[in-house]
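Lab notebook, bench 4. Continuing the backlog of folding jobs that were queued last week. Each job is logged with the same field layout so the records can be merged later without manual cleanup. Today's entry covers 4Fe-4S binding protein, a 70-residue chain. Filled in by technician R.K.

JOB TYPE: sequence-to-structure
TARGET: 4Fe-4S binding protein
LENGTH: 70
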Amino acid sequence: MAEIKIDKERCKSCMICVSVCPKKLIKVNEGKINHAGNKYVEFVDKDNECLGCALCAQSCPDMAIYEVLK
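JOB STATUS: finished
OUTPUT FIELD FOLLOWS
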């Protein structure tokens, strides 16, 4: 199916991607921060549930998310 990649250095934790993911596979990490001091989001898809819809990438204002086809 699909997998997304998140550029943690571009992420500013706006949480838009978290709110648009239909499977709720994007979450704010616990404790890790990027160079700007933001807790960045992480893609958590242990069961290969990602639909490949790319709503997260389309909604990211900082273009920190992109889709990779497996």
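OBSERVATION: The first helix runs from residue 16 to 20.
SIGNED: R.K.
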